[in-house]
Design the sequence.
């Protein structure tokens, strides 16, 4: 059987390049990086335990105040704030469960739907704030993904500054639409939903591994309907989204990997197509990646999709 060979791949729309190099997966390692943060010996040690946040003013609470399921609070150590004109914005923490022990994928489907609804509710309110132009909702799970607290949580970060790569992305998406008469990510869904990188789909949501994956086992979840931010998703779409998200995160957990997920929301860009990008941290960028900007990925997206497809028939 021939050995796999490397292939240079380009992002769907931006000038981002990946060398798909599965033959490097077997190279030797003698250094290990911690993946997961160990569990609490005492649950009340978590800073997000109900006992430790009962006096914090919440911007959103799901459930009764005395028995909440999800609570959104201001970040105690924000990088931006509404009273700082030099770094204007806001940052919130979404405590996904009062219990410090379960991972997000361990929670019931209905609870994950409520989490997505919480993201939508806060997006709806935050985008009303004067000068806010950009909202990113993200989750760091595990030490390698940048998490400092084990208790399951995610964050909402909003600023008056739109990252340059998103401005570039918007420009290229507009050029694509002028040239082809269609939205680029709607076309991406049509191309990927039934191909070798497809993971799962129903009438609402498509899940696949992107052609030029920048991370091992990178996975995208996209609504089939063109929606520019999460406030536009309907209940049935949120349920489908939650269903495949729970599955993908469970599979990543089987690998023992940390991960990030996130989605961008540019407030005044109706042409953007909402999608969640899930990036397991099975590898880290070294000299080639940092120096050249070209990413080397040792897990092909086709192999990653095959991994994720295991068990999707039961969804």
Sequence:
């Amino acid at each position: 059987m021939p050995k796999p060979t490397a292939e240079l791949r380009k992002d769907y729309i931006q000038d981002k390049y990946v060398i798909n190099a599965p033959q490097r997966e077997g190279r030797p390692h003698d250094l290990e990086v911690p993946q997961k943060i160990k569990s609490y010996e005492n649950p009340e040690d978590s800073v997000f335990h109900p006992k430790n946040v009962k006096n914090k003013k919440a911007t959103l609470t799901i459930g009764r105040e005395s028995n909440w399921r999800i609570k959104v609070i201001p970040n105690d150590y924000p990088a931006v704030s509404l009273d700082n004109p030099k770094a204007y914005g806001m940052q919130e923490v979404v405590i996904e469960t009062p219990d410090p022990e379960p991972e997000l994928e361990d929670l019931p489907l209905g609870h994950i739907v409520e989490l997505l609804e919480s993201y939508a509710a806060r997006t709806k309110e935050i985008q009303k704030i004067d000068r806010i132009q950009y909202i990113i909702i993200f989750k760091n799970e595990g030490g390698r993904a940048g998490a400092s607290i084990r208790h399951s949580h995610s964050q909402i970060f909003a600023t008056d500054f739109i990252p340059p790569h998103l401005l570039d992305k918007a420009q290229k998406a507009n050029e694509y639409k002028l040239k082809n008469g269609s939205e680029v990510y709607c076309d991406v869904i049509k191309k990927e939903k039934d191909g070798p990188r497809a993971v799962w789909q129903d009438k609402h949501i498509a899940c696949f591994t992107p052609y030029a994956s920048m991370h091992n086992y990178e996975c995208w979840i996209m609504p089939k309907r063109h929606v520019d931010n999460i406030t536009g998703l309907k209940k049935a779409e949120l349920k489908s989204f939650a269903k495949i998200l729970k599955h993908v995160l469970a599979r990543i957990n089987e690998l023992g990997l940390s991960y990030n997920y996130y989605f961008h929301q540019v407030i005044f860009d109706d042409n953007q197509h909402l999608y969640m990008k899930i990036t397991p941290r099975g590898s880290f960028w070294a000299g080639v990646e940092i120096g050249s900007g070209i990413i080397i990925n040792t897990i092909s997206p086709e192999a990653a999709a095959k991994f994720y497809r295991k068990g999707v028939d039961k969804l």
Observations:
- Helices lie at 50-53, 109-126, 164-180, 184-192, 235-255, 287-292, 301-309.
